[in-house]
Write a structure and sequence with these properties.
It is a single chain. The protein has 666 residues and is α+β, with helices and mostly antiparallel strands. The chain folds into 3 domains: 1-203, sav2460 like domains (Lipoxygenase-1); 207-218 and 226-250 and 267-399, no CATH class; 442-546 and 556-665, P-loop containing nucleotide triphosphate hydrolases (Rossmann fold, 3-Layer(aba) Sandwich). The protein contains 11 helices and 21 strands. The protein has helices at residues 155-162, 168-180, 302-344, 352-393, 456-459, 463-484, 502-511, 521-544, 573-585, 610-615, 649-665; strands spanning 3-5, 10-12, 17-23, 29-35, 46-47, 57-58, 68-72, 82-88, 106-110, 116-121, 130-139, 142-152, 418-425, 434-439, 445-449, 490-495, 559-565, 591-597, 616-619, 624-628, 635-639. Strands 1-10-9-3-7-6 form a 6-stranded mixed beta sheet, with no helix packed on it. It has a 6-stranded antiparallel beta sheet with strand order 2-12-11-8-4-5. A 5-stranded parallel beta sheet has the order 16-17-18-15-19, sandwiched between helices. Helix 1 packs antiparallel against helix 2. The two termini are 55 Å apart.
């Protein structure tokens, strides 16, 4: 699986024979330098077009639009600790004067069998004319790659001087002279097309306010969606969707004018969906990002555009924080290396020389960290501005309970594409909340964890208070599901063996939206489970036999939700088996499970119930950082969708649902 890297992010290299392919849309000089464990680069440790190759490193023979490096890491001398891949603009090519006036360079690292291992789009460039693209370095006997993307306005000479070359000016002049003496090939800039998530290395501005993606980092590690994460990504505007909107690559990158800087935001949110997005917002003052617009994403409807925009905001948030954390880690690692270098020299351990070197290393670390924080604050401010525009425009299915859209609520005639089950945020910006949306119909049941689970907020409550809050949370989820389905398309059943949740269940009972009164006692548990199990069996057989019209007359074909409180109280072994069956087989035929339980209460069953817990999406009645994103697996803090204290919105919505159900049943 390809890893899309950001500045400062590293990734292991499983292969040692590599190709590094560059797409730039214009001629570039491809060079490589080798440094030792102390970061020192000798004058002869550079490979460039026309010069003698270094052991294990082959660079292109001339300046090209799509250069390729061939690297055999096994052949690199043991004294070499790091290989730096450099890109520079030829001074006499007649091309762009700086990287900010052309397409963002794109690098793909390809291993054996032409399998792409990692990629890096170097965005956010302006006046730079040379840059360190990536580093290949040894770590504990293995090789890794780090995305650097550090540019130099002073050109290749300034870059080489920063790497410690004594003859930097002379070597840079020789490199440029070699490039000038060779006529560059004209070949189209190639784009990455593997992996199904192609990113065009071109300077075409992304539609809409994509400035929220970090200007110097467009990430993210291509990790698989974790089992405990609810979101499945934006879906295409076709029935039975599969994957989200993707940038469709073209054969050749378009030529971009060199008269000024262009937008280097990653064209991640573009899509080939037929309906065009709304007109782009007009920019504000010069140098400021465009004004955010609600629905500024692709899709067949405004609902889908808002859904895709929320997903894009979530991804931007994850990428911005990942870039910041990677930059901080990079700065700290660099400081540690510099301090180790100082301490390794006995002459610097005493006197003022060592103290000065240590202070310089710490000051550099603080400077890099401050710069990373400034970039993060800029990106978070843009995301906050977008959130302020998007939140009021969300439909009820996507909106918080305090959104005014609920005051104009009407029972819908169509099932929405997703449902909000809470909010997500990261510690770097706890005030910025991203809606946590799940697709409908539900593919997994929900588990409202009434245990402590290590959450600080849960540890501050007593058991009774936490259990009451968990049932309140389950009622809020159930009310949302009832509110977003058309009349007759969704029914709710409740099992409350000891009637311990009567107060929390009162809104559902009083409004009359339940399919039947909450079941109590062992007999009530058995009856409800038997009824729903039989339903799953009937529908499953009808679907397998292609005879859906053979179901009994009057059979309720709507979705069903079973809320189970105080599990495993009131459950015998047969009931537990039926519950597991509903969790496994129910979602495929429209029977969904919502557990309100503390896993410790069922610990006597041992590992027998592990598949049950894993099949459910765990949510909490209090803030808890247990959810992970599908890019870099941040630990996101989940906030449940609780009704504001004193608000009557829940009762009003349930009353409308009950009225619509009665009218539909007549």
């Amino acid at each position: 699986m390809t890893a899309e890297l950001v500045r400062g992010q590293n990734h292991p290299l499983p292969d040692t024979r590599l190709q590094i392919r560059v797409s730039a849309g214009h001629p570039v000089l491809a060079c490589a330098t080798c440094s030792d464990a102390q970061g020192a680069v000798d004058d002869g440790a550079i490979a460039y077009p026309g010069a003698a190759a270094l052991p294990g490193i082959e660079v292109p023979g001339q300046a090209t639009e799509a250069p390729r490096f061939s690297i055999d890491l096994d052949a690199v001398p043991d004294a070499v600790d790091q290989v730096n891949v450099l890109l520079a603009l030829p001074e006499t090519s007649g091309g762009p004067a700086h990287f900010g006036a052309t397409a963002a360079p794109f690098l793909a690292v390809v291993g054996q069998d032409d399998a792409e291992l990692a990629s890096f789009t170097i965005t956010g460039l302006d006046s730079e004319t040379a840059l360190v693209a990536v580093e290949l370095y040894r770590r504990q006997g293995a090789w890794k790659i780090r995305a650097v993307g550090q540019g130099y306005a002073g050109g290749l000479a300034a870059l080489l001087r920063d790497q410690g070359m004594d003859g930097a000016d002379r070597i840079a002049a020789a490199v440029q002279e070699k490039a000038a003496s060779r006529s560059p090939r004209t070949e189209p800039a190639r784009l990455r097309t593997s992996g199904g998530d192609a990113h065009a290395a071109q300077g075409t501005p992304a539609p809409g306010p994509d400035q929220s993606a970090p200007a110097d980092a467009t990430l993210a590690a291509g990790s698989a969606l974790p089992d405990d994460f609810p979101l499945a990504g934006p879906q295409p505007a076709t029935a039975g969707g599969a994957t989200g909107p993707q940038q469709t690559p073209t054969a050749d990158a378009p030529q971009t004018p060199s008269g000024g800087p262009i937008n280097y935001a990653h064209p991640r949110r573009q899509s080939t969906a037929p309906p065009p997005p709304p007109p782009a917002a007009q920019p504000g003052e010069p140098g400021r990002p465009p004004v955010p617009v609600a629905g500024d994403a692709t899709g067949w409807s405004m609902e889908e555009r808002l859904y895709n925009q929320v997903w894009g905001m979530f991804e931007d948030y994850a990428r911005a924080v990942a870039a910041y954390r990677s930059a901080v880690e990079f700065a700290e690692n660099r400081m540690e290396q510099e301090l180790d270098h100082v301490l390794s020299d006995p002459r610097s351990r005493i006197g003022g020389t060592g103290d000065a070197a240590r202070e310089a290393a710490r000051a550099k670390c603080e400077q890099l960290t401050d710069q990373a924080r400034q970039v993060l604050d800029r990106d978070l401010a843009q995301l906050a501005a977008e959130s302020e525009v998007v939140e009021p425009a969300l439909p009820p299915a996507f909106a918080r309970w305090d959104n005014p859209t609920w005051h104009a609520y009407r029972v819908p005639m169509e099932i929405p594409m997703a449902l909000r089950i809470g909010d997500l945020h990261l510690p770097e910006s706890p005030e910025l909340r991203i809606p946590c949306l799940v697709r409908l119909p539900l593919e997994r049941g929900l588990w409202v964890d009434s245990g402590r689970g290590g959450s600080e907020a849960a540890l501050m409550m007593d058991d009774a208070q936490l259990r009451r809050l968990a049932v309140d949370c389950a009622v809020a989820h159930a009310a949302r599901l009832l509110a977003v389905y058309p009349p007759g398309e969704f029914s709710v059943h409740v099992i409350d063996p000891a009637r311990s949740a009567a107060a929390s269940l009162a809104p559902l009972v009083a409004s009359g939206v339940l399919a039947a009164p909450p079941a109590a006692g062992a007999q009530g548990v058995s009856d409800v489970l038997a009824k729903l199990t039989q339903r799953v069996d009937l529908v499953s057989m009808a679907m397998r036999g292609g005879a859906a019209d053979a179901l009994p007359p009057g059979f309720d074909t709507g979705e069903q939700l079973l809320i189970v409180n105080d599990f495993p109280h009131g459950f015998d072994d047969r009931a537990v088996t039926q519950l597991r069956y509903l969790a496994d087989e129910g979602p495929a035929v429209g029977v969904h499970l919502m557990m309100v339980a503390d896993r410790e209460d069922a610990s006597a069953y041992g590992p027998v119930l592990d598949p049950l817990w894993r099949s459910l999406l765990r949510v909490t009645p209090v803030p808890d950082d247990h959810l992970a994103d599908p890019w870099v697996r941040h630990a996101w803090t989940y906030e449940p969708p609780m009704v504001p204290s004193g608000s009557d919105v829940l009762r009003q919505v349930l009353d409308q649902v009950a009225t619509a159900r009665r009218s539909w049943n007549r």
